[in-house]
Write a structure and sequence with these properties.
The protein is mainly alpha-helical. The protein is built from three helices and no strands. The termini are far apart.
Length: 98
């Protein structure tokens, strides 16, 4: 009875080892390695694309904040209103020309 138990145990362990070795050998074939590499590169490209989208969104948000803070989006004055050069005092040699 002991010998039968050890025989069954040996067969079971042998089958498990052979299955594990076969699985590992299949993972190390050139086709499998190429597939894994392609999947990894695809995931990397997706991550880079997501990062770029996040950067563009943050840049657009910051640009909107800066435009609102500096008044760059304010409407332009009409032609009937005084221009900026008329509102500023003139200095230097060209001031005498006025």
């Amino acid at each position: 009875m002991r010998r039968l138990f050890w025989l069954a145990m040996g067969i079971t362990i042998g089958v498990l080892v052979v299955r594990k070795l076969t699985e590992t050998a299949e993972k190390l074939t050139p086709q499998s390695l190429a597939g894994n590499l392609a999947d990894g590169l695809r995931e990397l490209a997706d991550a880079i694309g997501d990062f770029g989208a996040d950067v563009r969104a943050a840049a657009a948000l910051r640009e909107d904040e800066l435009r609102a803070g500096t008044g760059l989006d304010a409407p332009l004055p009409d032609s009937g209103q005084a221009s900026l050069s008329d509102a500023l005092p003139r200095r230097g040699a060209h001031a005498a020309d006025s």
